[in-house]
Design brief:
six-stranded antiparallel beta sheet; three-stranded antiparallel beta sheet; alpha+beta; 9 strands
Length: 130
Amino acid sequence: MYPANFHYTKEHEWVRVEGDIGVVGITDHAQQELGDIVYVDLPKVGATMEQGQTLASIESVKAVSDVYAAVSGEVVEVNSLLATSPEKLNEDPHGDAWLVKIKLSAPDEIKQLLSAEDYQNYVGAEGSKH
């Protein structure tokens, strides 16, 4: 369910590394929790992010939720598709509905993130608490 080549945070973001670029999005679990997504507020290209800092906000019919930077670096691209079609986050959170591309300033941060298996276990454990 969760792509093995991605790295995950406990806040339900993912990052896929392509050279010195980290492609960042939210997980399928996150979009399910949010419900129907109606608006995505992304940072501007050129913005500098620190790992753990608020990267974006996502508005659903239920609530507004912050998305945190899974990695540090400079935003080099934002997904313009989400400005007109925020619902894509519900449909394809691990594919076409990535949020931003960040030029990694601290690539070693990736090692602190969860593997797909660890994330799956984390989500499973979190789900059993409810």
